[in-house]
Amino acid sequence: MADVISQTSLILPCVGHQSRHGVAVFPSKSPISLSATRYSSLKLQNTALASSSSLVGTEFFARGNIGAIRRNPRPPPPNAHVGFAIGKAQKWWEKGVLPNMKEVTGAQDLVDSLLHAGDKLVVVDFFSPGCGGCKALHPKICQLAEMNPHVQFLQVNYDEHKAMCYALNIHVLPFFRFYRGAHGRLCSFSCTNATIKKFKDALAKHSPDRCSLCPTKGLEEKELLALSANRDLSFVYDPLPKEERQVFVPEREREEILSAVTSPLSHEAILPLSLPLPLPLPLPSTTR
Fold it and tell me: In the annotation, is 131 catalytic?
């Protein structure tokens, strides 16, 4: 009986209370049930302690891993999306382009650019992106364009406008054509770094200012007809009748005509220079 009382006294303080880990303990009336409850409560307590220790270990492990990840982040995979954009690479024929340099977009753009240039000298540069000579010559062309801001430079990409270049009989690269006002095409030639003097001489010869009263000529009529006949080009040319075309008069002859018309007429211009003089009247004779 004393054993039962001692066992009961050991368990009674726990009656009506919950353990620290939330496990409720309820004593039984029999000593056997009390001892079973005691051992079961101890077993549950050990289980709760083990679970709490595992949670603590898991929390510690997670915190340690998070710190390791923050200290040593893993590199992204090769195909991962990168958060910055790489700028578009500039092409070699786009480097050093000045305000007086323009890339032609088509046949109509070329014709309009020549017609709207007026008396300004226009240099048409035919190039190809895969042409080594064109690439080597491009920096010098940009320098000459900077030294001559009054000259208009038009760039024609051969690879993008092959049909137009065929119509204009362009078969060698790099190739240049000079146009100006009512004179139309002045010269055309091909040159490289070794023969750049040819380009400089033509630029010095045709760059001085000129004044023309006639309209700008641009491309020749046979070239315009060849462009309009090509089905790959969206270009339409309607030639004027012959009676409506304006005849080009050379500049020297035009100045002579204008000076003759605007100068005041002199007396010598009205009367002929050699006129018969009137004969003197006979004197009266004094003899009879």
Answer: yes
What is the residue type of 12? L
Alpha-carbon span 85 to 28, nearest angstrom: 75
**To the nearest whole number, what is the mean pLDDT of the chain?**
73
Q: In this structure, what token pair is assigned to residue 52?
A: 């709490």
125 burial (CB, 10 Å; 0-12 / 13-18 / 19+) is: buried
Beta strand pairing call for 152-157 and 184-190: unpaired
What is the maximum alpha-carbon separation in the chain?
A: 217
Dist CA 155 CA 103 (whole Å): 4
> In DSSP terms, which residues pair with 122 in a beta bridge?
152, 179
Of 251, 127, 106, residue with least CA distance to 177: 127
pLDDT band at residue 282 under the 50/70/90 scheme: low
Angle between the 196-206 and 132-147 helix axes, to the nearest 10 degrees? 30
Mean predicted confidence (pLDDT) in 7-30: 46
What is the edge-to-edge ordering of all strands in the sheet holding 184-190? 101-103, 152-157, 121-127, 175-180, 184-190
Choice among 131, 142, 191, 214 that is catalytic: 131
* 199-208 residue pLDDT tens: 999 999 998 8
